[in-house]
Amino acid sequence: MLAQRTTRWEFWPARLFELPYYLALLLLCLWYRLPPKSLAKANWALDHGEIGLGSKYATQCAFDQQAFPRTLFLPHDTPMEDRQRQLDAFAAEVGFPIIFKPDMGAVGKGVLRVNDPDDLHATAAQLSCDYLAQAYVDLPCEYGIFFVRVAGRGRITGINRKHFPTVIGDGTSTLLQLATRHARYTAHWPLFLRYLDLRRVPAAGEPVRLSFVGSHTMGCCFTNDGELITPPLERAIVRFCDSQPGYNFGRLDVRAESDDALERGEFVMIEANGVASLPTHMFDPAHSLLDAYRIFLAHARWLVRTAAEHRHQPMPLDSWRSIVQRVRANASALEGAHGTALDAQRS
Fold this sequence. Notes:
The chain has 11 helices and 11 strands.
């Protein structure tokens, strides 16, 4: 497992892998005479283009809400009694399970699931930052769909299927033993393994899906599934994005009943991601490193071209110092939320 993580580029440290992308962005900005900060203008309707320092709830609210599952915003400074009252009403409306995720979340960190009323108030008490509570979308398939709009034309530039980590029982090993032997196992996995009976011994040949978190960092395998792009799907995605003309570059995470349903344009929107989005179909293990960089750098060109098209849009942009401070503050809050979630599992 260690050898695989050393040699397989998909497991490299994110900043190391992304370095050529950032260098390409700088060179393209010079070519287009675009200040790098103005890359945010690709998504001029969102807070700094949604580069990892804004609110996920604010981003979601910029779109047609009927496309998303019912969502409740829970500011960290809400008095506990009020928070619990809001959650009781929310649970009465949407039922269980309920998914909780940090408002500045990324790569699945800090995500929680509440399965019954007994856990609801305990979860509310452990939230260490602004959170979203979202009705669980009980559909088996999840995808990342990359959207780009240039010169008024929206298009899908790639799709990845999210293959959730699954183990096959051997009739003798516990679920915990099987999970820890999985090739993609990391120390993050207790975040979702906590919801399983890890002492259970699955029958020989029995498949057990381990995770509900659609994140590469949290163990999902991503594949490049461009063959799923159909005219009905592209029309549905463009129609969704047309509800927000100030959104022109990013990844949309959706769930569907099946590949066929997705191809028909039938899906539920889970999350809209902005300028900081990665074209996650590049992480297909069947790709070479060169294949991955071809996809990654093509999207660098899309981003700069889109931002340059909207360079004259009025958009408040913080100083670089303020941006760095906000990014660091959000990263710290997210790590704190993730640590709290893992500590809750251990206790």
